[in-house]
């Protein structure tokens, strides 16, 4: 099968330099690049892969307590710590 592709000058120059360095024809280099792309199984990285460096190391370990069940208390403690006010004793329910 024949395929014609228009490349920007910068990409064409990079391809030419790669081919000279590796002693390949442009066709062989493009074929190999396509084979590698298709063999990876993914053309586009997942949302997790794109943001995993932003999630922080704390997400790797399970939380020490159930955050969903204790969210009100945790938020109250967080904001009181910012204000510097002492913690009020908890009332019995």
What does this structure look like?
The protein is an all-alpha fold. The protein has a domain at 9-39. It is built from 4 helices and no strands. The model has no long low-confidence stretch (mean pLDDT 80).
| Oligomeric nature of the chains | single chain
Number of helices: 4
End-to-end separation: 76 Å
Write down how many β-strands occur, each being a DSSP E stretch of 2 or more residues.
Answer: 0
Gross geometry:
rod-shaped
**Residues in helices, as a percent range:** 40-55%
Poorly predicted ranges: none
Q: Could you tell me the mean pLDDT? A: 80
What is the beta-strand fraction? under 5%
The string of secondary-structure elements, in order, is HHHH
Structural class per helix/strand content?
mainly alpha
Q: How would you sum up the major sheet?
A: none
Q: What Rg, in angstroms, do the CA atoms define?
A: 28 Å
Supply the key terms.
mainly alpha, 93 residues, rod-shaped, 4 helices, 0% strand
What is the gist of this entry?
The protein has 93 residues and is mainly alpha-helical. It has helices at 9-22, 26-39, 47-51, 71-83. The chain has a domain at 9-39.
Topology:
Elements: H1 9-22, H2 26-39, H3 47-51, H4 71-83
